[in-house]
User: Fold these one by one.
Assistant:
Number 1:
Amino acid sequence: MKQYDHPLAQDMQLSCLLYALSDPFRLTVVRKLAACQPQPCAPLQDGRPKSSVSHHFAVLRKAGLIRTEVVGVTHMNSLREQELESRFPGLLAAILAAASVEDVPV
Amino acid sequence: MKQYDHPLAQDMQLSCLLYALSDPFRLTVVRKLAACQPQPCAPLQDGRPKSSVSHHFAVLRKAGLIRTEVVGVTHMNSLREQELESRFPGLLAAILAAASVEDVPV
DNA sequence: CTGTTAGTTCGATTATAGTCGAACTAACGG
DNA sequence: CCGTTAGTTCGACTATAATCGAACTAACAG
């Protein structure tokens, strides 16, 4: 059973987090996960080809934003909220709040 | 006297802000401005050619992070803290706090 | 074993960004 | 007017990232 690399909280880099979240599609994924987790990739695809979605999930994983666990056939994704909070207190909450301030609904 | 375009607070986009701040050089500029403003570009150059620095300042300006005012020969830059706060409350503070948590000093 | 599902990996293409030197410009001092 | 300073703009090059189809893989159902 294949598993994924997830950086340690202490190795998360602010620039990588901000970069990962600066893409509207990836930010939307994070918002949806914040609202409902864990979730597999499929319902978050939003009409894109699987290879593109997989790429975006990999960026989120490498930044440390999400954790992906293989559960049977699906790969369940969840936000690493506590670890993010321990590394950068208040950051994720502030960004999610900013995202909900923007006109676009989740 | 040449002036610059600065987006209105209501037109600032989260993805542009995060993108602008995801570059370590630009984040450093913002941190230095937060510590001491207004400042001209020159002391923030950090050994780069002027054209590169000018490019990074333009990115920060277009995102809405900084305001540049022409004052005589120099261009004075300041953080648009209040406008950012009105658009995305707590966001800039959280990112600056996260930056100071990272090992690198200003 | 076969088929299916969910997602990854590969490879090619395209688009976007960063970098830098060189030429330019606006404001000032003398 | 001339030189200097501070920063922009231009254009070329390079590097990084997004996109997508196609082939692949792991886990499960039957």
Number 2:
Amino acid sequence: MQILKDEVKRSICTAALAEFKQHGFLKASMRQIAEAAGMTPGNIYRYFKSKEDLFGELLQPVYEELTMAMGTIKQEIDGSLCVEVKDHLSFLRQIDATLIRLFRESSTELNILLNLSEGSEYRAVKGDLVTLVNQIMLDVYGTMSEVPGMLSPREQASARMVASTIMESICLILRENEDGDMIKMLVDELLFMYSVGIGEKMRLRHT
Amino acid sequence: MQILKDEVKRSICTAALAEFKQHGFLKASMRQIAEAAGMTPGNIYRYFKSKEDLFGELLQPVYEELTMAMGTIKQEIDGSLCVEVKDHLSFLRQIDATLIRLFRESSTELNILLNLSEGSEYRAVKGDLVTLVNQIMLDVYGTMSEVPGMLSPREQASARMVASTIMESICLILRENEDGDMIKMLVDELLFMYSVGIGEKMRLRHT
Amino acid sequence: MQILKDEVKRSICTAALAEFKQHGFLKASMRQIAEAAGMTPGNIYRYFKSKEDLFGELLQPVYEELTMAMGTIKQEIDGSLCVEVKDHLSFLRQIDATLIRLFRESSTELNILLNLSEGSEYRAVKGDLVTLVNQIMLDVYGTMSEVPGMLSPREQASARMVASTIMESICLILRENEDGDMIKMLVDELLFMYSVGIGEKMRLRHT
Amino acid sequence: MQILKDEVKRSICTAALAEFKQHGFLKASMRQIAEAAGMTPGNIYRYFKSKEDLFGELLQPVYEELTMAMGTIKQEIDGSLCVEVKDHLSFLRQIDATLIRLFRESSTELNILLNLSEGSEYRAVKGDLVTLVNQIMLDVYGTMSEVPGMLSPREQASARMVASTIMESICLILRENEDGDMIKMLVDELLFMYSVGIGEKMRLRHT
DNA sequence: GATGAATGAGGGTTCATTCAT
DNA sequence: TATGAATGAACCCTCATTCAT
């Protein structure tokens, strides 16, 4: 018994991470994980109560950091009055930076958390991020609207769309790329497109 | 109570559509569909040969229309020389228009086809659309590049990202909205943002 | 309602015969039969109580004729004392003739009865025929044995083998040939081989 | 009560062998096998990938030996010119000896392989054997024919019949007897009858 | 007399999970 | 601590049979 408990646990996590990344939560197989970890399925249950539990333990740290960062940003948003466009962009960039930092630290976990958690308790994380970005967007639109603070349903839907597509796009970039620098570059470019586009759009509307 | 065959078939389709929309092809359960349609599972097989067949019968029309439209657009792209930026946008708008028209006719089906068809024979549809858009993007980038026709790996990755995120975003809009006019508006806005953004970006790079 | 009941019944029988011939009792499908008969499965059950019943009604006549002929032959065997070899052969030829006559009248039914009735109540028919032929063989062997009437286990097993293989071979010929004359020829040839062979064998043993 | 893996596997094989012997491949039920082996169906799949796999693992050794022996015999046949009748008989006896040896080692398996493999990948084995014997028979008939090498359709059908009935008869003997010595005796007797019979038949035809 | 929709029990198979060892 | 055999519920699917119409 020279294998310490922690070492075993780590090997399970490593195997599970790979399996979840490849097949997502729902289609991941406990047997595969056990095999890859060099043990039998039953033993996993000495370390984790269930598939959900194992999944949770892997993603919990990333999830918490993400939640915390989102909480901070949310507070800043709620606390700031008379925000300007570039401030909004700065919020976006904060989110962006958070995601990229998390990605650099835990690329696989973040990828799984955002893109492969269907069927688990984390399935809503992406939606939460969207909601946050949406809040920013509503402010942006609110500032630029003819009647500040009063958004038409169309404008609300538009803001929601922008929030969703930005988040979805960032998730996609995380999903389809492995290299951290490449991801940073692509996300930057994405935000650049959105921002300049949004700026142009707004300018055109008011002239 | 003798129910007419068509009525039963329709009730199966309704139930199946709902089940597929909620769980996707892979996780949809024939038992659930049967229950929702008010019958036993075996009876479904009087109307449809298999789960795949049921899935196919629901999506086939939308799939064919989409494929046909994509084929036409592809031919136009391949056939046109010395394309200009606005032409590229017109291609995008054609794709956009196709999707929106299909969505007006069969919103749920298109949604399932693009977002929930994993595990079925239609699993590649979204990827095909991305590939098509990517082809357009490569032309756009190629035209604007300093050395026309020669794209750096970064530029290629960027084009690929734009293609993917545009398609993903359109899918998302289709997924999260029910009203056809709203969808049209949001997709227009999305493309507007992307195009003006891309234009700005390119202009800035060359000055 | 211009289709008389009998006509419908006959069309069911025709379809059933074909299906049973092709797939045997066990794998025959009531749906297929109904379809081939131009009706729905349920209707068959107005004419026949079950698959077994339908099967039985098709084979009953042939079965009865066969049973009757076998009974007659059995009586002759039991009634004749001090039978000679050629008489035994005549019994074999009677069986042979019976089968061939039945085949000429009802080739498909006999084929099904003997070769494709597994799973039905007729599954034992071939065995019954074997038992009859075996009885003849036991007499043949008994007559030729050194101690008439007393057969060693080996001789009993041998007789049993000959009975089985003859019947099995005849069934095989029925199974693999369609033409009545060809069948007669082949069965004759088979019996000729067996009889001459048996005769030789016996002669050699006693010299 | 932890049972050793091999013991369980063996109990599955035992149960499966009995089930396949009783119902054949197609109608054998995995649930029945599981019950007979004292477990639930799912557990069988820890030991065998599928019904086909289980079937194959039971029959593979016998199948391979049979195939190898048939290959050898076929080569000898193809390689020998101007064969005589007694040589043909020697080929038959080789086949005979092979089957009997295999039967001594694996009676049930051989029985299943030859008689109960419909629906599996082994379904053609008996037919292959018949084809091989037929090849021998065609040579026999060819040698004895008035115009050597030219067989009338009747003669061809006759040869085919002899080949089929011999193989069918040997299978039957294997099927209905358990004792190896008894089987050997019966098959010898069968071939003896056939050969002497064939010889007589030919002699009579030419005088 | 005929329909055909519907059932229910069974088919092979998968897999997260449990537990005696 | 670790095993891995075993379970049980679920999966998709088939088919003889029934019965309201």
Number 3:
Amino acid sequence: MEKQAITIYTVASEAHVSMATVSRVVNGNPNVKPDTRKKVLEVIKRLNYRPNAVARGLASKKTTTVGVVIPDITNDYFAELALGIDDIATMYKYNMILANSDADDKNALQVVRSMFAKQVDGIIFMGHDVSDDVKAEFESSNVPVVVAGSVTNDDSLPVVRIDYQKATQEATSKLLKNNEKVALIIGSKSSTINAQQRIPGYQKAYEDSQRQYDHRLIFEAHDSYEEGYALVDRILKTGATAAFLSDDSIAAGLLNGLHDHGVKVPEDFEIITGNDTKLATITRPMMSSITQPLYDIGAVSMRLLTKLMSEDQQAAEADAEQDGNSNVILQHGFVERQSTK
Amino acid sequence: MEKQAITIYTVASEAHVSMATVSRVVNGNPNVKPDTRKKVLEVIKRLNYRPNAVARGLASKKTTTVGVVIPDITNDYFAELALGIDDIATMYKYNMILANSDADDKNALQVVRSMFAKQVDGIIFMGHDVSDDVKAEFESSNVPVVVAGSVTNDDSLPVVRIDYQKATQEATSKLLKNNEKVALIIGSKSSTINAQQRIPGYQKAYEDSQRQYDHRLIFEAHDSYEEGYALVDRILKTGATAAFLSDDSIAAGLLNGLHDHGVKVPEDFEIITGNDTKLATITRPMMSSITQPLYDIGAVSMRLLTKLMSEDQQAAEADAEQDGNSNVILQHGFVERQSTK
DNA sequence: CTGAAAGCGCTTACAG
DNA sequence: CTGAAAGCGCTTACAG
């Protein structure tokens, strides 16, 4: 017994109106006589008619679906952003196609391609830097893309983020007060966010304190607890007595690793972490941290995207798009907890 | 300058074949002469033709998209499951529409409705219990649904999970060895997973040890660190000296709360947590835990769903569907760490 | 192995 | 305020 799908055609004939009229009431078009509307609404209700979004998407060229590429859904930082994105998306009646890129360029490309194939109306890109292939995909499409919570090598893309340079500078400066050698622990040194923001911020802090920074104090690590934990020996060997870490998982790993090596935090080693996810308060000692409006970064990104998507619709060919500065920099802060003196 | 979309029609005319033939080569249909295939493939490449998945979805009634409802994307437990789901989905060329339900029935209903409107081929439902409305949605659709990582009040739904009753029983029994009063901390007492699995398991453990359980030792809490932290006083007041908690965030909260109240874990209070997410190893002391194959629960759910989706296609009306037992129970275990003696 | 044609379920000008 | 008709970009029998 195949359930016979009831379509706009069924409704139209039951209500003795045209499909166009049914379409109008479904879409809230005001140009419908109240009586007609009422009649149609009744039939819709009686038949429990549900518009087919796929058909609508094909006809209207709008899918009310956005693509969200996330490096790792199990990383609290990105998960918080995703929560903000989802809330706003839902508010605007958008669905989100979420796909993990594993921070891998090959995956990211596949993911983006498949999102375009599905005709998403926009994309939120979380991740550091974009491969040439992905950049090409973005450029050859008319679909707006916004970068959330990072800064990439593609500066034609609008981005919502904090001032990573300043944040890094501030954290490093704080640490420099009580310590001669402050380590910086980040992802890839060559990624844009690190090369152009965090490392310069780190250097500036050294300059501010009239000291020369030592590049050997800059460590690369993937965003995982284990890598942080494994870093202990190498960091200690440099004589560093403090560290700023861009990722909370790594920071938690380092913190616990230090403890297990008998190094006391903050007495013998100070730590400031970068994202203030819940991890920061779960560790003992709790970690002092740069604070970020994580949820808001996601929410603002999605809001910006909705704006771009509707402009896209109107402006269409008005390629004026002086896309000068659709970038938005949110405020960050600092919270002192137990991992600093 | 609207970019002129290039469609299957463009390819067909450039290659001097019919759209049907282009469709065949795109879909890997073997009934195409090698020469023809080659010619078409060349044109596709030259034009950089990308099939429109929306049109395909409308015509074929398959969207290669699945809906995933998740109570809270920022909860490590669900995020780990989602990772497994996404990996397998990607492997099978499915995209996933991910939506947070906030563990709220109203939201879940909206979310599910909008997934059906988007014509998803299947749904993975994470969450405890399903409202009547949602159940009705599920039943009135032909779309297969699988429940991942819980057990719900709708036992017509296939589910992938562990044996929560046994796990709870084992954990409680362990704790009962050194403690007279062992608390059980769960979500809602009336949810199916708790009423039919965890509470009975808890009681059995008491029976096994020839003791009478005290229902006042069963606490309800939402899955958050803060609630766990706030629970300390109430739990201590009962005289309990140990607890099994179903959620790691709550457990971490309790653990830290205990510490801040000067109660030593495990010396004065033993803790076993339920999900073995990364939190369990980040806290100090690290938490002993029931272990679960989190990623696999997600992966197996998705695999099961793909199976159901293709059966659905074939069986179609063969409603035989003795849906006897598509349930799959994965193995759990236990890992001793530092929160137990 | 290949093509012509209908159809998927909507929306969108266009007329009136 | 309403309807007839074309069209969105594919797939799917059906014929041959």
Number 4:
Amino acid sequence: MTKQEPGWELYRSFLAVLREGSLSAAGRALGLTQPSVGRHVEELERALGASLFTRSPQGLTPTETALELRTHAEVMAAAAAALLRAASGPADEVAGSVRVTASVVVGVEVLPPILTAFRRDHPKVAIELSLSNETEDLLRRDADIAVRMVRPTQGALVARHLGVIALGLHAHRSYLETHGTPASWDDLANHSLIGFDTETAVIRTLRARGRYFGREHFAFRADSDVAQLAAIRAGFGVGICQVGLGRRDPDLVHLLLGTLGFDLDTWLVMHPDLKSSRRVRLLYDHLALGLADYIRNGQ
Amino acid sequence: MTKQEPGWELYRSFLAVLREGSLSAAGRALGLTQPSVGRHVEELERALGASLFTRSPQGLTPTETALELRTHAEVMAAAAAALLRAASGPADEVAGSVRVTASVVVGVEVLPPILTAFRRDHPKVAIELSLSNETEDLLRRDADIAVRMVRPTQGALVARHLGVIALGLHAHRSYLETHGTPASWDDLANHSLIGFDTETAVIRTLRARGRYFGREHFAFRADSDVAQLAAIRAGFGVGICQVGLGRRDPDLVHLLLGTLGFDLDTWLVMHPDLKSSRRVRLLYDHLALGLADYIRNGQ
DNA sequence: GAATAGATATACATAAATTTATGACTAAGC
DNA sequence: GCTTAGTCATAAATTTATGTATATCTATTC
């Protein structure tokens, strides 16, 4: 007697429990009830011959094995989501939905008008925007199209280099009127600086070039790039943002022009399989044009 | 009322129908009955709002949309299979199963003794060997470890360069006794040649260097490399095989030494996630050693 | 041309899974 | 200390899905 392969529903419930942390919550998320999810997990444990969770009154905590299996279940879920998206409209028609991922600033400041223009031309296409500063995996189809600030490392992806987004030190006019305009890099030490909280690769690069300060110099610390931008706009102090964004707002002043020397290489990426999907392809081309426009204006 | 997300079982049945070509066959493959699978497909069609198959008395033929969705379902299936493999044994113990993919010759001629040695040391690890000349997708976890003859293009994979497998013209002693030994490359035209049926990239490269013949010159044509090797061993004529294999068999003669000038770059590849799996890691290292040994002997 | 094998589709009884309802337990807030 | 909200576990009720049996249709074979 061969061990019957477990049904895929079991994996779905298993993943939901991992994500939600309890049978009850998983049940709610899936539109099932707690006992059902409980039995699914039990059944999967029996089928795999391994215990997946240690039960406790405040929820289930996953075992080692459960954590190892999680990735695979996530892949299944991503594929299921991608399938749904692909099925959301006939590939030859321009209808359905497309999922785009980008950094938060780009998603909030740059993309909206571009997407609005696209929407005007193709009103049947719904757009999902997933904003995060961790890069989502296009090979896993976490998204259909990605705007990346790093050269794509994964081969086999369709990528287009859009150009370089210039970064620059900015401050609000109101701030400068009160505190004066920094005349040199060293002068910045006397100002309210806006910067990152945790040190990322970008910041280490900047510091290596001596062009940026450590965490302790910042009067306003936030990892979110939009939060920093908001702080600049609110006149909190001096911070870094994309030159293109600064130029849009007449009250923002670009300081110490050209001294930053650090730019964002910008790429548009998608999965090769999606080239045949009309709506994805159209949005890809549209984004390429719109972003190239934006980048050109920032230079 | 939000449209409820379709259950994963439906995808499973959908894929089975695509693979098997009929509801009945899919039912047999899944251990379900034809009406059940039929209902699954119906339900999925309703949930997606698209027709997936056109019914006919001789089976179901997939629609355009069904073919587009297939990839995603395949990804789900691959992930499910990978999950099962991962769950086949605790990651810290050396037990469970590992799936290795390689070309047919390598799998038939080179790997068996290496795997046998591994088995002796780790008797609890089951080994799945998937032999094919199309490269399986490691990112999709179609296999855990791959022996590749081309440099891996997909970034983010763990790859180790093992060296270069030398190829050479070979013939069986019995053939040479009857038909004489070809003295030069041009002389080959007077011999029974063993070669490929369809033209692959490898062959085009060879022909571009003027070191190989077209399809029409071959007296024995087979796309399978093992079949070619078998033909050489049977004394059918002159063909190409790995020097390391020729050297093992005292009756095989390496002809026109060093004139071929075409080699196989060899790589061992695995998914980075699997580094933490003890059994996969051990087999990876063992294969690296064993294959490097084999390659060294072929030079 | 009839018989066969393989396919889908439908009807209905049955088996299986889900929901509902309940109990027991834990942690936090008043 | 008691209430409230959260959890998992269990047993009975019900819905749901499955399997069986049958009809039908179409190529293929004898």
